[in-house]
Amino acid sequence: GKRRGGPMVFNTLTQNKVEFVPKDGNTVKWYICGPTVYDSSHLGHARTYVAFDVIRRILSDYFGYDIFCVMNVTDIDDKIILRARRNHLLKLYRDAKPSIDKVISDAKTELEKALTKHDGKAAALEKEVGQEQSSANKKAMQAELDTLAFKRTALVAYQATLEAAAGGGWTDAGALIDSVGDLIANGLDAEKGSEVTDQQIFRDHAAFYENEYLEDMATLGVNLPDVLTRVTEFVPQVVDYIQKIMDNGFAYEAQGSVYFDIRKYQSSHSYRKLSFSAAAIKAAFDEGEGALASCDGKRCEFDFALWKCSKAGEPCWDSPWGQGRPGWHIECSVMASDLLGDTLDIHGGGIDLCFPHHDNELAQAEAYYGHQQWVNYFLHSGHLNIGFQKMSKSLKNFFTIREIFKGGSVMRVSEDETVVLPPYTPRQLRLLFMMYQWDEPMFFAKDTLDVACGKEKTFKDFFGSVQAMSRDHMPNLVSKPQGWSDVERQLYRKVEECQGEVHNALCDNFNTPVVLSKLGELVSACNIYMNDASLPHKQFLLVHKAAVYITRIFRLLGIDDANGSYAFTTRAGGDAEHLPSALDSFCSFREQVRAGCRSKMSSDDIRAMADKARSETLASLRGKAEGQKQVTVDQVLDAFDKWAASVAEAAARGDPRQAYLQLCDQVRDSVLPELGVRLEDQGEGFVWKLDDPEVLRREREEKAKAASEAQRKKVENKLAQAQANLDKALASSTPPAEVFRGQSDKWSKFDEGGIPTHNAAGEELNKSARKNAEKEFKRREADHKKYTDQVAKNANYMADLESEVKQMAQQLAAL
Asked: Which of 10, 26, 68, 165 is the most exposed place for a label (fewest CB within 10 A)?
């Protein structure tokens, strides 16, 4: 297709894709809303900041823009204040070593308050839903009701814990505090929060989680901004900024706080440029103002705080209006303006920040500068849903970034089913995020994670195959024909098509799902070419071109940061020189052993081959690698030596051929994977590829688990069949006449052969019922004959069936 010159981006301000044109030539001024550091970073953070990292890389490294990127850290906020205070007070509570009875009593008191508050809120909302006429508003309210229902489930879980503790199920007060500490902390904060006056407590809390966030982003490969700002370091600028907004007539002071005057602003400006839906606006506004907000003196319910008068137990700074602290929205307007000026090319953040945060940022900055447009392009990353629900701690579907990397988190996949997630790597997470368009909702689930892991494996296997092809072709390139046939020309056209389609996808709102899809199609075409046994010659340089291009795009997107020729391929030290020859020799010797088994080579010949490998091949390899610092090469050579010795010992014992094949399987399945080598048998040859030992170990564990499950299923089926055979034998061991006479609830009279003639009520059977009874009698008669014939052949027939059931049950239990 025809290529466009530059990118089109989805601009929330215009609600469509528009051409990206920076204000000042090639320079891009970009502000990103950073995290509020009150807790560990979660998957929502990962999705947003990986998305903006990818876009920033594309704009900078692909389109060549000079980007000046500023990102803030909100290090003072209602959430930080409450969390820091509660953690501090709970620590003091724990240090006091309360009795378990006191812990139970305190937690129960707070639980009762929480349930009362929750149920009152739910009842009021239900009433509002019944009165609401707007379907959009009603839908939003219903979603909030669903969330409240899940929150109540969490409260009920606390209730169950406390009931168990009261019944003697808990003896460790500290462990119980770990379980119900959030409840107790709420009560402690209500009682003693105003006594927490050391501002370092709040700063230390924020610094701890800011450091965690930065570490998590580094692990994910997210580049640092050019400037990192903290609101606590900009308080004087915040005060000056607010004062100018007041001087311009768009803010007023009330009881020590300063509020933005929405009505005055709307008389000359457009408000809420980003959020057009009226659904749940009041709830979003209240959340933006914070849990500690006071509305005293406000002229309009939607006037928002620029400066908050600090109450006891809150950090504070001096200002013309008294001691207080910045409101949430003002910090971004101030810090972005201070560093980027009166016009931003790009402002980015999560879609949940549209209203009120970003709408209010725009209002503040435009009131400050006296113009109508502060931001030219607003980019919002889409919601992250766990399954089909928005991620939320209250819904018990909340995952931190570190939990995903560590593994062991429990994910609910249905109302009654959960799965335990294995550890995932940063690369797998980046791939997962890029499988979804950055500004659309994405669904995080075990299935989608598996797809991302599958994509990674496909690409990794491809690069490994290209490396293997390189080892085969490059040393002898001068002797290999280089002419192209129609097959090569067709593959080259696919490379060109992929390059054009990837370019167009990057131009089209940074469409990474299409990019990954097109690269995957090119990999498939190259794999078909490399595996085509009918081709007399294969052109490595063509495959190399495709692999280098895919590598370039992967490194552009931050999927790979290795320094090898291809993505996912790197080795340190002198390994690059000596490791291939060591592995080639090891795997070639293994292949000779396999071939010897197929050709029925004698034990003496196999032993001689093993001795030669140790005395000549290994000695030569060790001599070449001597003096080099190459841990991996030494490990390969040691494993080679040890395995060759095992082969020689097996030959000396005269072991059967099966023993050698088992030794060969051990190399492929256990020995080499521990060294980070994936060995693939291909007909009478092999291909080895470098990989992460942990990945190979996990694959081996999953393969063993699958085999174990298959074996369990097989034994379960055998047990079911054995039990069915036993049940049938027991049922057919009694003559049919005795069976029918014993069914007094069905029959009352019988003919001379034992076939029923009258039902239990004494009524004679009609023709149809009589026919059915005769049919059933004959079936049982046939089964009884088979049984007697089996017993005649084998007097232990029943005992054997019982023994088989017992053996199958024991096998199943052993699994």
From this structure: 26
Instruction: Report the alpha-carbon distance of residue 581 to residue 385 in Å, rounded.
Output: 48
Q: What is the per-residue pLDDT across 365-384, written as a single tens digit (0 to 9) for each?
A: 999 999 999 999 999 999 99
Both tokens assigned to 365: 């900055």
Measure the CA–CA gap between 404 and 748, rounded to whole angstroms: 69
Between the alpha carbon of residue 805 and those of residues 590, 680, 710, 713, 718, the distances in Å are: 43, 41, 19, 15, 9
Q: 549-553: long-range contacts at Cβ-Cβ below 8 A with a sequence spacing of 24 or more?
A: 549/495, 549/498, 549/499, 549/522, 550/459, 550/462, 550/519, 550/522, 550/523, 551/463, 553/502, 553/515, 553/519
Average pLDDT, the chain: 90
CA pair distance 745, 286, nearest whole angstrom? 71
Question: pTM value?
Answer: 0.82
Q: Give the contacts of 390 (CB within 8 A, at least 6 positions apart).
A: 383, 384
Of 135-139, 175-179, 298-302, least confident by mean pLDDT is: 135-139
Sheet holding 389-390, edge to edge: 389-390, 384-386, 442-444
**pLDDT tens track for 539-564:** 999 999 999 999 999 999 999 987 78
Which is nearest to 428 in space by CA: 400, 396, 460, 399?
A: 460
φ, ψ of residue 144 to 5 degrees: the values are: -65, -35
The mean-pLDDT minimum among 12-16, 265-269, 291-295, 687-691 falls in 291-295
Least trusted range by pLDDT, from 176-190, 249-263, 326-340, 736-750? 736-750
Rounded distance between C-alpha atoms, residue 421 and residue 446, angstroms: 7
Sign of CA dihedral 258, 259, 261, 265: positive
Torsion of CA 674, 678, 679, 680, to 10 degrees: 150
Cβ–Cβ under 8 Å, residues 259 and 298: yes
Angle between helices 767-793 and 797-814 (to 10 degrees): 90
pLDDT over 90 at 233, yes or no: yes
Residue listed under structure tokens 């929480």: 114
Please give the Cα distance from 391 to 407 (Å, whole number).
18
Closest-CA residue to 34 (of 226, 202, 242, 203): 226
Region 676-693: mean pLDDT is 86
* Six token digits for residue 324: 């207080």
Q: Which two tokens stand for residue 614?
A: 């140790």
Digit-coded pLDDT (tens) for 588-602: 999 999 988 888 888
Distance CA 722, CA 800 (A): 10
Calculate the dihedral angle through the C-alpha atoms of 642, 643, 646, 647, rounding to the nearest 10 degrees: -140
User: Residue 228 and residue 207: Cα distance in Å, rounded?
Assistant: 13
C-alpha neighbours within 13 Å on the C-beta side of residue 539: 16
Assign 3-class secondary structure to 384-401.
Answer: EEECCEECCHHHCCCCEH
Tell me which residue of 333, 335, 336 sits closest to 356, measured CA to CA.
333
Residue 572 pLDDT greater than 60, yes or no: no
Q: Residue 3: what pLDDT?
A: 37
Per-residue model confidence (pLDDT) at position 574: 47
For the chain, the residue count is: 815
CA distance 34 to 780: 78
Confidence of residue 508 (pLDDT cuts 50, 70, 90): very high
DSSP letter at 508 equals B
User: Position 203: which residue type?
Assistant: R
Give the Cα separation of 352 and 287 in Å (integer): 11
Selection from 326, 408, 357 nearest residue 32 by Cα: 357
